[in-house]
């Protein structure tokens, strides 16, 4: 398997289907009807930064107000994702709902620190 930059080769891949760590944007666009209507590859970076903002402040004790703010951002991101899924042909929103609930709970816990 060859991984370079933001692409991953699917030919001869030893990763199970859907479990490759880096997936090219154009291959996602081919499989999902909602992809052309979203912001593109930056969406994943926003999710990773939001998760880091949710977890790191309580662990380090630095910038504690950042954790509830990150939780609010992740809830808004998932609300947008649910809206995009429902306006398109994709009705699989269970993961988005679970992530929204997780962000609300984590944000509530972080706010009480």
Query: Number of helical runs?
Result: 4
Strand content: under 5%
H-E string? EEHHHH
Biggest sheet features: 2 strands, antiparallel
Q: Helical proportion? A: 55-70%
How many domains is the backbone divided into? 2
Rg (C-alpha, Å): 16 Å
User: How far apart are the first and last residues' alpha carbons, in Å?
Assistant: 45 Å
Strand order of the largest sheet: 1-2
User: What overall form do the CA principal axes indicate?
Assistant: globular
Using brief descriptors, characterize the structure shown.
113 residues, two-stranded antiparallel ribbon, mainly alpha, 2 domains, globular, single chain, disordered N terminus, 4 helices
Description:
The protein is mainly alpha-helical. The protein has two domains: 1-31, no CATH class; 37-111. The chain is built from four helices and two strands. It has helices at 25-31, 42-60, 66-87, 94-111; strands spanning 3-4, 7-8. It has a two-stranded antiparallel ribbon with strand order 1-2. α2 (42-60) runs antiparallel to α3 and α3 runs antiparallel to α4. Residues 1-10 have low confidence and may be disordered.
